[in-house]
Amino acid sequence: MYELKTKETDRSVFEFIENVESPxxxxxxxxxxxxxxxxxxxxxxxxxxxxxxxxxYHYKYESGHEGDAPLVGFSPRKAKISLYFATGDTKREExxxxxxxxxxxxxxxxxxxVADINIDVLKALINQSVSFxxxxxxxQ
Length: 140
Description:
Layout: H1 13-18, H2 23-40, E1 44-47, E2 51-54, E3 57-60, E4 66-69, E5 72-76, E6 81-84, H3 90-96, E7 103-104, E8 108-111, H4 119-136
Antiparallel strand pairs: 1-2, 2-5, 3-4, 5-6, 6-8, 7-8
Helix pairs in contact: 2-4, 3-4
């Protein structure tokens, strides 16, 4: 059976951030920690070795694959900062138009630094993602 790699762990979020090599990325990680915590109302938890997640939901796909994931999160990676929002939400694309300098992948939005983005739009993206997932997976 498939084993999820990205699970909630007991690792310290602060310890993880303190071990981020780049001082600028570390500073941005603390800014994002404050923004995500304030916007979601959830405490930060480590998911896997490098994702800081907020809240949780249980998903189950038609294929039968299921698991738990954070509602939203971020990871200060070496190259860019990855922001994790809900996939499949059409409102995400609309909000990203006014977000600032970023690139997107299937599940991630990538930024170089917090100074490149609109914080109010980030908060809207966080809130929209949480609302979308709570509606899509209501039994939490």
